[in-house]
Please model this.
Amino acid sequence: MTNETFTSEQQLLERYACIAFEKQEALAEAIGAANWNVDMGKGEICFGGSLCFPIQVLGTISHAAQTWLWSWANTRSGLSPQVTKLALELKAYGEKHGIPLLSNDSFDFTSEELHLMGLIASGMSGASAYYIADYGQGAMIVTVNSEQIDRHRSDSHLKIMTVFPQVISQYDMNHRQALEYYLSDKGYAVSHSGDTLTGKKDSLLIKAGFDDIGRLVSLNG
Model:
C-alpha cells in the first residue's frame, strides 16, 4: 500500500492512472481473449483454465441498481479475510485522509466508473493489474499479482507517447501533474521550465508543452 498522502479521488487518479493503465495493457497481452473463472476458496482467478493469478476482491457493482458495494461491506458474501485484505487497507486509507470513494461502504456508481476504481486501487497497492469480472447481473473488480503479467510490461520509451494521450482523453485531470507522476514512475528525472516539462532517463528525452491552464498541447520524445 502506498505511503504517499492524498486527500481526494482526483489526486489519486492523477497519481496512479497512467502507470496503472500501462499495466492493463500487459494484462491484456497475457490473457488474450480467454474466459475467466474465480475460485474464492483458493483466492485466485484463472483464464482459459490454466493461467491462474492470486486476487484481492475490491467489490461489486449491480448493473440494475448502478450501485457499488465494497467487499468488506458485503456481509452476505462469505468472503474470507484472505481476499478482502486490500479492500480493508483502502478503507483505512480513505478514513484517515477523508476520501469517501474508499471509505463509504456503498454508493451510486456507473459501469464506466469501474475502470477508475481499478486504476486507483491497483496503483495504490502496486498490483500487477486489475480485472473486471462481469457475471451478467453485475461485475466484480479484483486486483491480480503475477510476475507473468509483469513480464509483459514494456519499458519502451515510446509507450509514454501512446499511453498518456489515451489516459487524459478518458479522464479529467491535471495533465502536467499526471505526466510528472508517470515519468517519475518510469524512472525519468523531471524538470520544469515555464510551460515545458522535460523528462530525462539516460539518453532518452521526453518534452511536453502545456497551455496556460495546464492542458497538454505537445508531446515529443
Remarks:
- Residues 159-220 form one domain.
